[in-house]
Amino acid sequence: MTAARGDAPDVIANARLTGSERIDPFGDELVDVHLADGLVVDIAPAGALPRRGLVVDADGGRAIPGLWDHHVHVVQWALSAQRVPLGDATSAAHAASLMAQAPTLADGRRVGSGFRDAFWSDAPDLALLDAATGDVATYLINADVHSVWLNSAALRREGFEPDGVGVLREEPAFEISRRLNAVDVSVSDPLVTRMAQDAASRGVTGLVDFDMAWNDEAWARRLAAGFDALRVSYGIYPEFLERAIAQGLQTGDTVRGADGAASDLVRVGPLKVITDGSLGTRTAACSHHYPGDAHNHGLLTVDLATLVDLMTRATGAGIASAIHAIGDVANSHALEAFGATGAWGTIEHAQLVAHADIPRFARLGVGASVQPEHALDDRDLTDTVWAGQTAQPYPLRALADTGANLLFGSDAPVAPLDPWAAMAAAVFRTRDGREAWQPHQRVDAATALAASTRGGSAAGARLEPGDVADLAVCEHDPLAADEAALRGMRVSATLVGGRLTHVV
Fold first, then answer.
1. Which residues of 428-463 are buried (b: 16+ CB within 10 A; e: fewer)?
2. CA-CA-CA-CA torsion sign (282, 443, 417, 86)
């Protein structure tokens, strides 16, 4: 009998175990993983117990706990399939010419994403973009999503007066993204399903969704329509906090589908607060100024008193906190707020952290939700734009060594949703044949694998009887793979609650 997506196997046969903090006796021997009622019920030497029911042959592949991406903007990532990729644009003029050839979407817009203007010798300019794109409303979203370049037609469509440049930053840029993401659900939900199936093919069993929307309603709708590819924990933004509290939502609560049916696939997640900008837009809040502008230390978009108030209200209502902090000043403020409120949760990104603040993550029990691929995307920018900073950029090893719980993610669409790329970046700190960047901040492969699972690096990564059967079977041992093997890892099966979400 051939297994198919949606089936619930009784046995994963001929697998090898791997992972951190193993206490099993099997070493590198083949084992059978026996499943029932969505749980791992036994692990035994291959063939030692009867193989009853549906058997999936792992053919010597490695059985690992299911992978998680702890930071995804789900709809924006799904919609990137419709948007013009601008990551290879070498100048503003090049980006404008790419958008001149872009298809017009059904809503009359042209949308591109992924440009990095910090590397351009010229600057975004409204006249340049207008000359290339004419009267079709055209939007170019920065790779970091903290700025958007619009032509005059787009500015007028969105209610802004053309200013000669056409670049919106921070909250106005986020508002443009919210409007662009608000497509009809008949368009977005199928793309979300496709995105989730692609993630499952990489061994992903869950993610944290930080879409800037009222996510409870969206996920209830998707559950009712049959979404079943992943587990999801969704974020709540400050403008929706009182609504969440009024509805009695607490972190960890399960979400019922719009049809009222119960499901443990989707759960309420944390309050998400964005407290500063980004490196690429030169708005991350830093202790030292940015080059060439003595007055630019970035932006604190939420002051400490407001942050403490938000986190106090969330904590009192049973809601965790996930605080976006990229610059060292923002990270210090976020840690202060965690200490003042007794909140639990994560700091998202932690890209530049003062050396004295690094041990505070573990002391306060604050998780470091980090995106290792960003370190490689930004290495040249970090070495120039942040050359004058004295804090540690992308301090993965330092955080791990002081006991912080690392939780890896992609921040998709900022980087592709691919946990194997995140692990490779964390372990090797390089790609494309370049020398390792700041190799002293590498982490070992066991830490990287654990950080890519639901509980993070502090929880370890191993399969044991009694575990929920969220697991994957991959081609190579992640603990021994080189960079190329990690980045190219093939996954033959993924299971969520004992049910196949991907199988080849």
1. bbbbeeeebbbeebbbebbbbbbbbbbebbbbbbbb
2. positive
| Rounded Cα gap, residues 82 and 149, in angstroms | 18
| pTM of the model as a whole | 0.96
Per-residue model confidence (pLDDT) at position 114: 96
Compute φ and ψ for 239, nearest 5 degrees. Answer: -70, -15
Residue that wins the pLDDT comparison between 461 and 243: 243
Question: Which tokens belong to 269?
Answer: 């997640």
Q: How far apart are CA 177 and CA 441, in angstroms?
A: 33
Question: For 241, phi and psi rounded to 5 degrees?
Answer: -65, -45
Q: How many residues does the chain have?
A: 504
Mean pLDDT of the chain: 96
Q: How far is CA 419 from CA 63, 128, 199, 383, 396, in A?
A: 16, 38, 9, 25, 16
* Contact in structure between 40 and 464 (CB atoms under 8 Å): yes
In DSSP terms, 141 is beta-bridged to 113, 148
In 3D, which of 397, 465, 466, 384 has the Cα closest to residue 428?
397
Q: DSSP per residue over 370-418, as a string? A: E-HHHHHHTHHHHHHHTTT--SEES-HHHHHHTT--EEE---BTSS-S-
**Looking at this protein, which amino acid is placed at residue 70?**
H
Residue whose structure tokens are 């003595």: 294
Q: How far is CA 44 from CA 39, 151, 358, 361, 496, in A?
A: 15, 63, 42, 39, 21
Q: What is the pLDDT of residues 274-307, one digit of tens each?
A: 999 999 999 999 999 999 999 999 999 999 999 9
Strand 147-150 to 345-349 pairing:
unpaired
What is the rounded CA–CA span in Å between residue 370 and residue 347? 8
pLDDT tens-digit profile of 120-132? 999 999 999 999 9
